Give the backbone structure.
Amino acid sequence: MGINVNVTEQQVLQGDTSIVRKEFEDLVQSSFLIKKFENDVAINFPEIPPLDMIKKLKTEKYRSWFEKLDREVPGVPYFLSQKSNTLLYYLMGNIPFEEKDNSIYFNELSAQRFFREKVVQIKNICLPNNINPQNGIHRLSGLLSGERESLSQSSAPRDEIKQESEKVKKGVAIKDLLDKYGSIAFMNRDRALKLTLVITGIPEKISFVRNSLVKDPRNPQPFFLTSMKTDSSLNEIRSVIFPSISDVEEAIGKFGGVYVQVVTKAEDSSYQSLFESENIFPVETVLEFNAAEEKSAVSPAEEPVPVPVSVKGTAVKDITEKEPASEHTGNIEEKRSDESEEILRLRAENTKLIKKVEQLQKLIETYEEEVHKKQSIKGFFRKFFD
């Protein structure tokens, strides 16, 4: 059962949002309540019929009430009920609109600006509480673009809002790859390389030390090794490469490096973006893979060392906003991945054997030293008894 809040016309004219604000302040204190009352809070105006409400929302007095509520409660569209038309009234109270042929047409620039701002605010409510914000974003974009049935239709900001919806759908391809391989490297539409690195938790700080393209003669499949600091931890994350090595080297030579995105896996198994670079990160080519690096590096199919930091209000992006892997993704052979994993396993066993041999050598040296001492003492006493 949802939450219903009744607001009188006098409260609207006086700019009194206290009763509504109090409800939302209580909701955001609990992850359970945030999830439970998504799209389930209705603000009712019993004294104002729906048709009169549309006319009144063209006046400054009524619009100022909704604008004040928007300033006081960031991300409120996530909670507002679409069925009750509360979300529609809220949009009309914050975005300039025109009424024509029983439809509502929002000002294009204002709608785009409002949509971008609300997407960030909705994510800031959801992601620190491990809640997927996609439904809230879809609901808002659908109503603004007129893709869903409602009291009115909007057509102005369709291009940008539809692109948002399409990008969310395309994110499924990346999710499948991240589930299977962990961190990955692929080519975007501009034929530039992009690393998507998977970490656990939401750190306060993310900084990069270096990106290396590793070509190990003992490993038939090259890979990227990224050294990254999260808070006080240093992670070295290995990314599986999907394009051919020739395409990889061509892209690095053309763009001077790679783009980097850092994501974390939420409780609902979706991936949320914590950081995405706008600039190119340089790459150095490494021809041999150091044993020390091998020990600290993360294998392609596993996640890096967890960084259990939860930061409320951290502005983050949704992985589903990004472009899918390129056509080279479908050309990766399963056999190559299996061989790579087998080689890594054998190399790990080989390292253990080398350590055991070194320990045995030390024992032998100690034994030989003791024997030598005994022989020396025996020779010393022999001088007196011969």
User: Anything to note?
Assistant: Residues 3-156 form one domain. The longest helix spans residues 334-385.
